Amino acid sequence: MPGSQSFLRQRKANSPSIQKKHSKSGGATDSDKAEKGSDLQAPQSPSREEEVVWGKTPDGKGEQSLRADNVDDSKQVIAVFRVPTTHDVITTLLNPGYKKSHLDLLNLGLLGFQIALYLVLPRHVSQVFFFIYFAFWRAAYDAGLGWVLTKQSKKKWIVKEVQRRGWLNEESRPAVRNWIRKQLQDKMGKDYSFDELPLEYNTWLLFRQLVDVILVNDFLSYCMFAFSCFRIPEGLSGVVHVIRWLAGIALIGFNLWVKTEAHNVVKDYGWYWGDCFFQRGNLVFDGVFELAPHPMYSVGYAGYYGLSLISGSYKVLFASLAAHAAQFAFLILFENPHIERNYGQKKAIAQRIRFRSNSEVAGPSSTTAAVATPEPGVDSSTPAITEGDSATTEPELETETEIEEQTIPEFNLPNKTKPSSTIKSQHSRHQPKLSIASSVSSNAGFVHQKKQPKALSQHDLLNKYFRRDTVTLRNLDLLRATDAMLVLVITYSASLALIPALSPKTTLILHYFHALAWVFIHYVGLGQVLRAQSESKFLVRHFLKNYHYGERDVGEGPIIEAFTNWKIIYNLSMCMTYVSCLGLVWKSYSLPNDWGVGNELLCHTMGTLLVGLHIWATMESYEVLGVFGWFFGDFFMEEFPAHLEYTGIYRYLNNPEAMGGAAWFGLALISGSKLVLSLAVVKHLANWWFLTNVENPHMRKLYGDSLRQDAGFVKVIKNVASKNAKMLESRADRHVPELKRVVTEVKGTFDKVLEDTAEAVEEFLARSGPKFSEVMQDTKVLLQQSRERLVITRVANDISSYDPTKYNVSIVPSSTTGANAFHLGEPITVKWQAPINHSRKDWIGLYRVGANKSTLVTKTSSLGMWLPVHGEEWDGHVPVGLERARHHDSQYGTVTFKGNTLPWLVGRYEIRYHHDGKYNVMSLDGPLEIYVDKPSETNFSTVRETLMRVVPLALDSDPSLIPLSCKTAPTGSGTQTSSLPPSEGTDAEGSGNGAGAHDDQEHLEDRDPDDFTFWSERQAKRICAAIKQVFDVDYAPEVVVADANLTALAKRILVSKELLSGRPPNTSG
C-alpha cells in the first residue's frame, strides 16, 4: 500500500514547538519522506484548542485564493488552506452510520458480487475466475495506479486532466461538478467546504474514491482465490497441521497490526499519496516504520503467506509471490522515484570536506556532542508540527567518527627545466605540490600558491586507496593483470564445470584448439598491444586515461603501472602457452610397445635433442637480455641507455628466439602427432610474425644504424659461400666470361625491376596519401553517423493542414562573439514562432550539418539534443498526451539548449523545428558553429586559463559547483566565466527542489579556490571531452572527478603531454 504522511498541525497558541522524528530505516519508502521540510506558513489561531492541520498547493495558492479561519479577510490573505478531517475506508464503507456515495455503493456491489460468485460457482471454476479477477485488480493497482501517480508526480497530470475536462468547473460542466460535489460532501465532515478548498485537494478526494475501489476489491479477490484453493495436504502429521494453522493465523494477525499501525502514522494523506497533490509540512515517523524498511510493502504483506499456509495450496503461494513482486515493482518504479524527485537532496560528487580533530569539534573536552541544526526549507514561523502522543520523545543516537588530522609535507616545483626528454617524476618540471591553496591574481593573471598544507578529506583518501577497483565484474580491465587472472580463473572454472564427458578424439581436438588459442593470444594478441605501445604508447595512455595518480606520481606512475601489468600478463600468457601445448602433447602421446621397431627410438632421440636446444637457447637469451630485455622494457622506459651489445648467443644470432620453436618440432617427433606438428608450424609462423612486425621495427626505430644486419653465424656462412664460389670460378675459367655476362644481365634485370617497383610504390603512396587521409576522415564521420541513424522516422498525417511558412526558428547570436559561433558548453538560445493552432507537442532539435539530407523530414537521431516547445507537455521523451488549451497557446517563444542538450563536440550544427512529436520539419536555421579556444602555447598559465573557461561551462555555471576562483576571474574571451544566473545555471543534473544548491559556510572556509564538484559523472565526461579536443589528452571521468581542482588538472595535462609526446612544453607564464 502507499506510503507516507506529513503533518502541519497547530494546537494551542502557547505550544509552538516543533517535533521531528527522522526514520532510522535506511531507504524506507515512507520514512524517506521524514527527511523533508516545508516553508508553509499558517496563522496562529489562539481561540481554537483543537488540533488544526494546514495544507498548501504546489504553486502556493490553488485554484483560488484562500483565507484562513478566524482571520480578518480585509487584513491577511494566505496561501495555505485548512485540511478537513477524513475517515478511513473501512469506517466509511462498512459503518451504516456514514452516508454512502455512489462510488461506495458501486464498491459494495462489487464486493457482494464476488461473495455471491464464490458461493455459486464450482470449486475448479472459481479458482480460475478469481485468479484472473485478482490479477486484474492487482494490475489495476500496481500498473494502473503506478502509471497515473507517476504522471501526477511529474506533471500533475490528474489535476490537469480534471481541469481540462472541466469536471470541477461550474461553468463548463455544472452537472458533473454538482454530482462530484455531492459525493464528496456526503463522505466528509462538517469542516469540509467544497467551494472553499482548492482544485488539488478536491481532485485528491475524488482520486481516493477510485483507490478505495481498487484496494478493497484487490484484497477480497485474493481472499476468494485462496478460499477456492483451500485443501488439506496429505501425508502430514496432526502436529504439522496445527503449526501450519497457528503460523498462518499469526502472520495474518501481524499483517493486520502492521497495516493498522502504519495507517495510524501516515493517516489518509500518506495512505492515498496525498503528497502528489498538495503539501502538508514535515513528517513524523515512529512505531512500525522503525520495525523494517518499507514496512507497508515488505512485512505488511505477511498475511499473503499466512493465508497460503492455511489454504495449503502452492497455487496461492505462487500467486502471493507474484503479487508481492508486483508490489515491489510499484515501490521501485513509482514510490522511490517520487520520493527522490520531491524530497531528495542530491549530494555533490568530489566535494572536499576536511576531517576535523576532536579539539575543533568538542573543544578541550574529548567528548563529542551532536548539535541539531534546522533543515533547509523549514521555517520557524510555521505552526507547531507534532504527531501527538505517537511521536517518539527519546533523542536519536548520533555518532561521529573521530579522525586525527594529518599534516602532509609539501614539495616545491623546480625552477628550471631539463633538456632531456626522459621523464622522471622526481625531476619533472610540472611536478605539483601535494598541498596547494590557490587564488587568482586579478592583475598579473597568475596563480599565487600559499604554502599551507591541505587538510585531509574523505574524497582524497578514497582516491588514494581506491582506483576503479574490480567489484565482481564491474570495472573490469583486461589490461590490468589482476583482472586478466580473474577472468582466466572464472573461465577455466566454468569450463571444467560445464564441459560434459567427451570422447578421446573430441578431447584431443579441444586441447588442440585450446593450445592454438593461447599461441595466437601470446604472439598475435600481445604482439598487437606491444606494437601499439611502440607506436603510440598505447598501454601508458590507457593507464594515464583510466586511473588517477597522485600529484607526485603522475609523471612515472602510468609508466610503472603499465609496465608492471604488462610483465605479469606477458608471463601469464607465456606460461599458459607452454602448458596448453604440453597438454596437447600429453593427450596425443603414447608409449611405443617396441622401441626397436621402426624409427621410434630415433624420433625420441632427435626430439629430445631439439627440446634441449630450445631450453639452451632460451636460457642463453635470458642470460644476455636480463629481466629488462626479457619483458621488452625498452618499449616502455626511456631512462635506460639506447646501447646494443652483441654478446653470448646474440654474438651468433640476431633472433635466437626463432630457435625457441625447436622444442615443439621435437615434441611432434616424440608424440608422432600431426596435430602437434601443425601446432609447431603455426607457433613458428606466429613467432616469425612477431619478430618481423613488432620487435624488428621497434629495434630499428630505437637503435637506427647501430643495429647490425648480419649475425656472426650468417657472416660465417657467407664467407664460406664466397670462398667456394671463388674455388669454382678458378676451376671453370673458360666459363667465367659467359657466367659473368649472365649474372650481370640477371642482376641488372633484378635491379631494374626493383628500381621500377620502388618508384611505382613511392608514386602510389604520394598520390594516395591524401586519399587515404580522406578515407580515414570519412570513416570517422560514418562511425559517428551510425549512432545518429539509429532512429525510426515518424511523420504526421495531418501535416497538410499546417502552413510551414508560418513557422520560423532562429538562433540568437552568442553574447560573446556576436555571431552564430558558440564556445563549447555555452548555452544556445533559439527563438521560435508558430501559428496559434500549432501542436503542443512540437519540438526543436539540434543536428550536425550534413547529417540530414532532406529539409522536409529529419531521418537521424538528435542524440538527446532536443527541447520541447512546451515543456509541460512532455514527460522526458514521451508526450504527456494532454489536449491543447488554445487560449494558453503562444505564437512565439524561446528555448535554451544547455547542459546535456548541447553538443559537446566542435563542429557545425543546424536547428530544426519539428511538428507534433514527429519528424516533419516546419522550419530550420543554421549553420551555427561550436568552437573551443585552443591556447597558442602550452604552459601552466594557458592551460589553467583554458580550464577556467571550460570547467564552469561543463558544470552548467552552477555557483555551487564551479571553482571559487572562476566566479570573479576573467576568461580568455574577456567574459565572466560564471555567465549564467543561478536559475539558469542548473539543469536536470542539479535539480531536486534546489537541494544541495547551497554551500555550507564552514565548507567554504576550508575549500581550495580551485576546487570544483559535480552533480553527476556526465558533467565530468563533458570536461574530458573538452580536454580531448583542446589538448589531445584522454582521461576517464573518474580521473577528472578524483582531481576536481583546476591547478591539479592543469598540471596533470602538462605532465601527460610531456609523457606522451616527449616534447617539453613551455612552462613560462
Automatic annotation (TrEMBL):
The chain crosses the membrane at residues 103-121, 127-150, 239-258, 484-503, 509-530, 568-586, 662-682. Gene3D superfamilies: 1.20.120.1630. One of its GO terms (molecular function) is phosphatidylethanolamine N-methyltransferase activity. Residues 1-68, 360-434, 965-1009 are annotated as: Disordered. Keywords: Endoplasmic reticulum, Lipid biosynthesis, Lipid metabolism, Membrane, Methyltransferase, Phospholipid biosynthesis, Phospholipid metabolism, S-adenosyl-L-methionine, Transferase, Transmembrane, Transmembrane helix. It is a multi-pass membrane protein. InterPro entries: Phopholipid_MeTrfase (IPR007318), Phosphatid-EA_MeTrfase_fun (IPR016219). Pathway: Phospholipid metabolism; phosphatidylcholine biosynthesis. Residues 395-407 have a biased composition (Acidic residues). GO terms for biological process: methylation; phosphatidylcholine biosynthetic process. Catalyzes the first step of the methylation pathway of phosphatidylcholine biosynthesis, the SAM-dependent methylation of phosphatidylethanolamine (PE) to phosphatidylmonomethylethanolamine (PMME). This is Phosphatidylethanolamine N-methyltransferase.
